[in-house]
Amino acid sequence: MKSKSYLVFGLGRFGSSLARSLCEQGQQVMAVDTNEELVQEIAPFVTEAVQLDATDEAALATLEVSSFDGAVVSIGENVRDSVLICVLLKEMGIPYLIAKANDELHAKVLRKIGVDRVVFPERDMGERVAKSIVTPGVLDLMQLGDDFQIVEIRTPAKWAGNTLIGLNVRRKYGISILAVHRNGSYMVSPSADLQLEADDTLLVIGKEEDIEELEA
Questions:
Q1: Which residues are paired to 117 by β-bridges?
Q2: pLDDT per residue as tens digits for the range 25-61
């Protein structure tokens, strides 16, 4: 996969973790913050780290943001700065913009000014942890609109030892298995004759109610 370049504004816990993770996945990352200490801390883990006030239009222009594939504004607490930076980035031609919001009103404003994707890291993580507590077989999930989810689950005990074609999960359970994680690696689009093992982890897609039925 071709490496892409990203700007990350705001190096709090979310921003710094995101910047490091993107770099670990082979992407080019410029991390930006007004705090010199945070910039120095992230510098060894990203492509470039810059101390800069991104609300200053002239200073922001020096980064040539239109040459990047995307940007993440992870300044959720200061709504004014978050909105202003997003406006400036859109005006300067950033191709794809993600921004962190701290509440629905903040998110609404971000969407109005053209942010491509709004995220709620704390809320989303809380929902995922809650789901894993209530439904222990669910290890992780991603919501796709109102109806569908992509979920990582432990292999149901009754499935172990059976092949995918024998289980016929799409017809019987209304879900599809996208990948099987076994011994540290993923088998994407597993073959129908694959026999599931008790220690497998499954990445499945389906409606929420159908996935919940697996735990019944």
A1: 98
A2: 889 999 999 999 999 999 999 999 999 999 999 999 9
